[in-house]
Amino acid sequence: MAVCCGRLQAQQLSFSPMRLFFKGAPGENVSEALIIANTTAAPYEFLVSIQDWNRDSLGVKHYFPANTLPRSNAQRIRLPQTSLVIAPGETKTYLVTMQIPPAGTQHTTTNSMLFFTQTNARRAESGDKSGIGLKISLEFGIQLFYTPGTAEKGTLRFLAFNYDPPAAGDTALQRLAIRYQNTGSVHKDGFVRFELTNKQTGAEIKPDPIPFAIMPLSEQVVYCRLNDIPEGDYLAVAILDTKSDNDLKVAEKNIHVKK
Asked: Looking at the chain, which terminus has fewer C-beta neighbours within 10 angstroms, N or C?
């Protein structure tokens, strides 16, 4: 029985980088290198393909056939080969080429996903003696981006900052929720940071930052659970941090955490 491990990196098989960005003059063919290293004792065989993708309101990726989404660049991507074998101990350079669109035809970031799907799945070791075992097939996804020079950078802006109180008898469900928008025509990523200050004691609580990635001209929601926060009145702060921008976006809200 074949089981797909999903789009995850194997510990001894690496693909770098996981995102390729194409830049060039209109009509130019631009190539970017993907380095694939196999430090295992077994060969890996892959089928190489392209799909379109986008993100939903929670930032989750969804995949579609190539050239079906409005912001797809799949038709401009050229691959050197659609099947690939990486021998034990081998490191290969795989060149992905894109033809840059003509001037004035593209004004927003376009994207596609390059998939390497393993075709020589291996049988995993079984803990019992049934002899059945499972076959594990790996799949790696490389994001391909093109951003034209005319694309409006835009910014991130808060649309809402809410506190969802706990349901009756279930304090574990209380959480903070922000809804925000990417006003620009370029892909953005970064972290959402939440900070809470207890109004009575002055104690500060900083949950782990939450990574985000958002498509151009779209909206997303990010949640922060409060089930580990002591009861009390707090000033809650949400910060949108895109790392490369100095323009942090900050929102505040007064809340009461229950236990």
From this structure: N
CB atoms near residue 8 (< 10 Å): 11
Q: Which of 240, 253, 112, 95 is nearest to 182 (CA)?
A: 240
Helix (H, G, I), strand (E, B) or coil at 252: strand
DSSP letter for 173, please: G
Is omega for the bond preceding 166 within 30 degrees of 0, making it cis?
no
Instruction: Quote the mean pLDDT of the chain.
Output: 89
Provide the 10 A C-beta neighbour count for residue 38: 20
Q: How far apart are CA 225 and CA 157, in angstroms?
A: 22
Confidence class for position 104, pLDDT limits 50, 70, 90: confident
Dist. CA 231–CA 257, nearest whole Å: 5
pTM for the model: 0.86
Rounded to whole angstroms, what are the CA distances from 30 to 92, 95, 104, 123? 19, 10, 18, 39
Parallel, antiparallel, or unpaired for β 44-55 and 110-118?
antiparallel
**CB neighbours of 225 closer than 8 A, spacing ≥ 6?**
172, 174, 175
**DSSP symbol at 59:** S
Alpha-carbon span 134 to 196, nearest angstrom:
46
Provide mean pLDDT across the span 184-213: 95
Higher-confidence residue: 137 or 233? 233
Give, for 52, the enclosing helix (H) or strand (E): strand 44-55
Between residues 141 and 12, the one the model is more confident about: 141
